[in-house]
């Protein structure tokens, strides 16, 4: 780093250079003034010198002056009027050096170096910002690429899930169709088997059983049918022509101990369960007025014709 002494030395050299230039300028002005001819003011006067003629100059080594005639001294010439003294040329005072602070005494090279350093630093900062922007842009591109791959993977997984679900739904549809065909076939078989039993029950209702009143037995069966039907929550897939034999265990008063669907029955498992629940909800079954035909274990033919 440049010291104060270096700056002061540079300032002294600069002042010496300025003084040398001023001195050279003064010498040049003075020299020009001396070589110029002096002109006297006023008209020119012509004069003739009157007096004895000066003796001719003796020839060197030829003649000797005659001793009888002493030499006559010539009158000294009139002195020329004095030349006017040249007017002093007013020289401008040298400019006083301005007081400069230590920061202003810097060498031009130092200023240039600082400017170059500042430009270099600015360029480095600009390059750093550009590099950071490139890194940030690269990170954004990598994040976008990551998100794109993630979306593609998710879409691929969703496509596989949809494909698997479609396959499962297709398989379930085939299974439902197969079960529907089996159920339809079972219903037709149950109807074919229940027809003779229904005809047999009708004959028993007409002829009576064990000497009991045939009309009372028929009315008792109709009352149980009505009670169960009123408490039946019929499934949507239950179709008309439903016939199922119910095995009911009860006690006096009509309270049901147990119920089960026997054979034949053309109902599906869901419908069978709903019929059993209807019997339990209908309890106590009709009892008062039917004491003479009451039985603890009865087989009841449940019918649904729509």
From TrEMBL:
The keyword Membrane applies. This is Colicin import membrane protein. SUPFAM superfamilies: TolA/TonB C-terminal domain (SSF74653). Residues 53-150, 184-213 are annotated as: Disordered. The chain crosses the membrane at residues 12-31. The keyword Isomerase does not apply. Residues 75-101, 122-150 have a biased composition (Basic and acidic residues). Pfam families: TonB_2. Keywords: Membrane, Transmembrane, Transmembrane helix.
